[in-house]
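Onboarding guide, step 5: your first structure request.
Type a short instruction followed by the sequence, for example:

Predict the 3D structure of this protein.
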Amino acid sequence: MGKMTSQPDNHGATAGGRAASHADVTILGTGITGTLLAAALARNGLSVQLLGEDHHPRIAGGEATLPCTSFLYELIAARYRLPEAALLADAGRVRTEVSHASGIHRTWGFVHHEAGHEHRAGRSLQFNVPSEHGESHFHRPDLDAWLLAAAARRGVRVRQRTRVDKAVTEDGFVRLALESGGELRTGLVIDTQGPDSAVARAIGAERVSTRATRTYGFHAVGVQPYERLAAPRPGSHPWSQGTLTHVFDGGWLQVGHFRNAEGTPPPTVPAVVTLSLDAAHHPAPAGHGTQELWREVLRHAERHPAIAAQLAGAQPLTGWIEQDPHWRASHTVGDRMLLLDRAALGGDPLLGRDLYASAQLVLVAAGDILAGARDGDFSPGRFRYLERLQHGMADRHDALVAAALTASGSFDLWSALARVWLLGTMFDALSLKRSAKELAAGGSEAALAGLRADPATGACHQSIPEYRDLLDFTLALCRAAAEGDQSPRRAADRILLRLRHDRIVPPIYGFGDPDDLEYVLSLQGRLRTLRWVRGQALPSVRRLVRPYGLRGGGKDLGHDE
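The system replies with structure tokens like these:
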């Protein structure tokens, strides 16, 4: 493998005039993780091949960004001099420059249902996304195709409909045997495509499953915007301008609309519909065709009148099933081989998990790969941090989904769990914003140190230790409720009590007030929070929040304006 060159952007050339079948790095998978990583590596001087088993445009899961996701895209752009990544953090530019079909993501809505009951406003929550970027609901067929073209412009050599049948490490390179009969050589191969691949077989990785949910996904037309059936919370955005999660005992159904920036979209605009069911209590359907899977969705929807009404006129355009979405590879590294993202772990698409995990992995992996290229070292030890991080991500998300399944039968417990999650997203965004500011100000060492946190937490960035304690406390109470050691209502009461008294919880929202069902931040809320930061907040929170002030740079604490 050649050392990293000093010139960015290969524009298709190979180091030392090597044949086009050779590359410093070969990435399997043309989804957002593989393509963004390929572009970052090529921008910084490596010769990169990108192989995809299918072709674009195609349907892919993972559409909703959070403020923490957008800050990660900004960090990728700054650290690797890749402005294409920064564009992903700007919802307006995504819609005008990448995909008119993409939408905005202004609100997370949760509506709890009981069989036979109509919508009840008192059993709904709305968290209006605090963002200075404006968050996106990506139309992934357009976005992934745009990213692929951007990577090609950076010099990445793209081959679609190409499947690797065998990967073998030889003297100083990896030989990739193609199903078509050809052969490629590379200094490092990274698989981002999915489980049970040639690379996974080569490193002896086993698939370890934790069967929590079974997931059905669709793009469908005719899905009614929910605000036509039930009014949103009084000060909130329309339900259709974000992800709406219908929660019922044993699962949830998520709905997200495209082309929703100009108000309530017409039913002719496609939407994403994702059903997640407790796999232990809901057997898999006999068939896997789109219509067969859609009938499974309607079968569960008909028990809940409001969900049934939202889907009454809907027709699926395409569908897919994740029989076993909760799994991780037993190990993810080998000599000159790496499993990443969908090749290393899977998880329910609950609460924007997909893009948040993807962006973290691109940020970390690009740095480790470039350092390995510089040192001529792609040994397993180079990527142990990534392995531990991905295992931490799987552990944390599995625990969150298990807690959500327990809470799905109780609005009180779901509401308490959702509030703890919301608080975590705020701290995540502030931590990443601090790293972005440090990097922009030239403090690269401090910024990069803050982006290599304890991987067991399931995040690459720093968090507040006291928040991790709160989350662990919450998850433990959900486990106790699942095991029958206490009632869901009692578990919820204990979580809310801690939220009312814990000194890491800002008065930005009534986190501990069960009757406060809507997070919309006002100027008064900001003022209360600043007074609290100066007086009552723990030092760890004060250090994180105080530098941003009421307005300057701290807009991520409030509504996008």
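Each response can be followed by summary notes, for example: The longest strand covers residues 183-191.
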